[in-house]
Every structure is written in C-alpha cells, then in structure tokens.
Amino acid sequence: MKILVISTSLRNNSNSDILSDEFTKGAMSSGHEVEKISLRGKKINFCIGCDICQTAKRCVLKDDVNEVIQKIHDSDVIAFAIPVYFGGVSGQVQTLFDRTYSLFPWKLKVEQTHKFRGVYLLTTSSDQSTESTDLVIQKVEYWIKHFNGTWVKCSEVAKLAGVVRGLGVHEAGEIRKFPDVLNQAFKMGKAI
Ligand SMILES: Cc1cc2nc3c(=O)[nH]c(=O)nc-3n(C[C@H](O)[C@H](O)[C@H](O)COP(=O)(O)O)c2cc1C
User: Fold this and answer.
1) Confidence of residue 72 (pLDDT cuts 50, 70, 90)
2) In which band, very low, low, confident or very high, does the pLDDT at 26 lie, cut at 50, 70 and 90?
C-alpha cells in the first residue's frame, strides 16, 4: 500500500517526529511504499474561505500545501504525527485540515475520489494523562468524518485505525527515553 506519513511539528528533534520515524520504519519493514513528509520549512497559507475549491476542485492559493493535499488524495493510508498544543492541534495542523476542503467539492455532488481508508495518529504531550490527547484524536476523527460522506457521496469508509500516545514528554527528543512507546509506533506501522 501507499502510505503517507505527515509530521507536523516544526521543532528540531521533535518527539512526534521521532514517533513518525518509528512508524515509517515499521511500515517499510512490511514492504509498503512509504513516504514521510514534514510541514517544517513549508509555506502554509491560511484558508481564506473563498469557496472556489468547491467548484474548481483545487485550491487557488499558491504555496506548498497543494502538493501535500495531492499526496493525501493519492495515498491508501495516512499517518499524522501531531503534538498537543493548548489541548488541541497546532495552528499548522488546523490550517492543513482547512486547506483539504478542496478535497470535498460538495457543490458538484460528485463521488469522492480519495483512496485512503486507514488513518493513524502519533501524538505527544507534556501532560501524562491520556485525556490530554483527547481533543487531538477528536479533531482527526472529525476530519476523517468529512471523507465519509458528510458533504459528498462516498462509497468506502475511512477510519482512525490506530493511535500511539507519547505522554509526559516535554523537552525535544525526550520520547527516546520511552522505548516501549517507540516500539508501539514501530509495531503499528508494521501491522498495516
Ligand atoms: C505552544 C505549545 C502549547 C502546548 N500545549 C500543551 C498542552 O496543552 N498540553 C500538553 O500536555 N502539552 C502541551 N505542549 C507541550 C507539547 O505537546 C510537548 O512538548 C510535545 O512533546 C511536543 O511534541 P513535538 O516535540 O513533536 O513538537 C505545548 C507546547 C507548545 C509549544
């Protein structure tokens, strides 16, 4: 399968990025075609709500996001690495999700063409409680829901297929002190 791993933290030696590397290694060890990309260094403009994508089926903004959206469109499996920011997702993740609006041309009433069915989440937080990651999970589930016929017809259903939480990690790279969590990420990728 064609697997796209999207690492969203912008910091060096990011905990969630390290988890995404483990996930990538696991998925590759099972023979999948895996591409990992990072939002770090990418030019990401806010969605301006012009709605042109709803009829044009593409975003009119000119930056690095359109290539990411095309990769999401073309992949069988998507994995997001997302740290918790203020209880939820960071601004760049929200913006990426906003920009994927171009994948839902609901005004055209066409069947969706995206391929992905499985979505995986690797999330990290300073807080040690599992609840600290709840809003990130809900956000990703809500995003997936829109690929499942909320706005447009869709023959197949996508779902959140797995989550790994790196809890109680604040400093960059701290996740390396938790080999069991790294292993969970590796195994989740391998099991696809
Ligand atoms: C702006 C900002 C907001 C944050 N908000 C939270 C939060 O609400 N809850 C929490 O547990 N950790 C919070 N953190 C800590 C990060 O989730 C934590 O450091 C995580 O390991 C970062 O992952 P990364 O290294 O992949 O960026 C925040 C960090 C930043 C920079």
Assistant:
1) very high
2) very high
Q: What is the pTM of this model?
A: 0.96
Ligand 1 atom showing the smallest separation from residue 81 Cα:
26
Which atom of ligand 1 is the closest one to the Cα of 125? 17
Structural domain total, the chain: 1
Please state, in angstroms and as integers, the Cα–Cα distance from residue 105 to each residue in 34, 54, 123, 147, 185, following that order. Answer: 27, 4, 29, 11, 34
Ligand 1 probe mutation, 126, 128, 133, 165, most atoms within 8 A of CB = 126
User: Which CATH number does the domain housing residue 118 bear?
Assistant: 3.40.50.360
CA of 135 to the centre of ligand 1 (A): 13
Task: Please give the residue range of the domain that contains residue 144.
Answer: 2-190
Tell the residue nearest (CA) to atom 2 of ligand 1.
85
Task: Give mean pLDDT, residues 38-52.
Answer: 96
Paired strand residues for 124: 83, 166
